[in-house]
Amino acid sequence: MTKPPVHPTFAWINPACAPNITIQNWVRRYRSCKNTFMSDVREVLTWETFGKASRELATEVWESGYEPDIIVCVARGGLIPAGAIAYALEQKSMLVLNVEFYTGIGTTLLDPRLVDPVPDNHGMSGKKVLIVDDVADSGRTLEFVRGICSQYTDQIKVAVLYEKPRSTIHCDYVWKETADWIAFPWSCLPPVNGEGSKDN
């Protein structure tokens, strides 16, 4: 039995990458998500393009003359971009801040908050910090993280793959600006445990 035509909402999912998704799962995913997306228009980031994007973003940082002593990655979305940029900049010093703000597609907590495990942030003291995340959407998560970093240093810059026009923070390094919903290769497919993804 073949799968039904893919609704535009799922046009960014490659069925070949998820051959075990049944018709029932496709229908259930469509019914649960069709009213929550801001738009059927989306920016699709593939793994191949991500490799190019992270390299170009790291080059932008390097050519600006800013040489970070430590990279602060915003988990979870910033983990993979931060790792790629750290390798490109030959920087081994990294700190992970686990921040929770988005609770679903287009839904958030009242305010961003740190979740365990919370690291010892004193390693940032007096250092040049580069905060890395996947996207500056509303900007509130990055403002929260920058506020934490500013308690230890005044040398802070922010790098993201994407920045949206509505963001309250204007990042120092941006690979691409877009107003569209973004499909990242690390979060575009549902979790293997069968539960629905809560990421954008």
Q: In words, what does this structure look like?
A:
The protein has helices at residues 23-33, 47-63, 79-88, 140-149; strands spanning 42-44, 70-75, 94-104, 107-114, 129-136, 156-163, 173-177, 181-183. Helix 2 (47-63) packs across helix 3. The protein is α/β, with parallel strands linked by helices. Strand 3 and strand 4 form a beta hairpin. The chain is built from four helices and eight strands; from the N terminus they run H-E-H-E-H-E-E-E-H-E-E-E. The strands form two sheets. Strands 4-3-2-5-6-7 form a six-stranded mixed β-sheet, with helices on both faces. A two-stranded parallel sheet has the order 1-8. Residues 1-24 and 26-39 have low confidence and may be disordered. The chain has a domain at 47-181: Rossmann fold, CATH 3.40.50.2020. The protein is 24% helix and 26% strand.
Query: Per the principal axes of the C-alpha atoms, what is the gross shape?
Result: globular
Q: Flag low-confidence runs.
A: 1-24, 26-39
Major sheet attributes? 6 strands, mixed
Number of helices: 4
Rg over C-alpha atoms, rounded to the nearest angstrom: 18 Å
Helix content: 10-25%
How much strand?
25-35%
Tell me the structural class: alpha/beta
Please give the order of strands in the largest beta sheet. 4-3-2-5-6-7
According to CATH, what is the topology of the domain at 47-181? Rossmann fold
